[in-house]
Amino acid sequence: xxxxxxxxxxxxxxxxxxxxxxxxxxxxxxxxxxxxxxxxxxxxxxxxxxxxxxxxxxxxxxxxxxxxxxxxxxxxxxxxxxxxxxxxxxxxxxxxxxxxxxxxxxxxxxxxxxxxxxxxxxxxxxxxxxxxxxxxxxxxxxxxxxxxxxxxxxxxxxxxxxxxxxxxxxxxxxxxxxxxxxxxxxxxxxxxxxxxxxxxxxxxxxxxxxxxxxxxxxxxxxxxxxxxxxxxxxxxxxxxxxxxxxxxxxxxxxxxxxxxxxxxxxxxxxxxxxxxxxxxxxxxxxxxxxxxxxxxxxx
Length: 299
Hints:
The two termini are 22 Å apart. The protein is 27% helix and 21% strand. By secondary structure, it is of the alpha+beta class. The chain contains eight helices and 13 strands.
């Protein structure tokens, strides 16, 4: 999204599409407040609510059947135990529980694969945590000696079939990109290229002459410390999150980006501040204050 906004796209995060009406040159889209916009072409990549968006336009090719995956995240002290992703023999239920070294310096166990009733069912249960720990101990017994930092769950937009649901309806000016499971993370660039090619053929698009590159911040454990890259910056010498070594400069850059972080969760994803060993106990209040101040400056 940041790449798109930097290169001229409009991002409307509070614009919830609720109804679609076909026209001669595309679609008229209404949101839940009765506001409308016109679209030459619609690409439905709504993830966990992709079937709902398709149904609003009159298409009923698949049904989202949410599948939850729970994870455990170990303290960075466990990092020397794992140098590469360890995958157990797969079964009919899936790939099983992986042991994953992250670029952030943690070790992660997961995921599970649980059919759930809805896209917002992201609870973490003790029974599943115990099962994940048991699976991890079978692969690396020493994991039992290291503390956990956190546990979380994500929900994947599975459907009644295992394949992706990339459905071009070019005559209708609509492309559905649905049922993209966890493998979509590695397949995302290929999916984007394929859908872009379909869209280009349908609309005879001309590539832009100038593309403004976007550089994502380096959040890896091995990044160069900001205070060494910017030794003259007072903000980059002031530590906000000691667990993840995130400076005031890191936070301010996330709040001043073309697409600024607007929530505590977004600020975590942009900087990792609050995602370390203390889980925001030390820096949480400061981060909330900086977030509120950033919103005030943008008004």
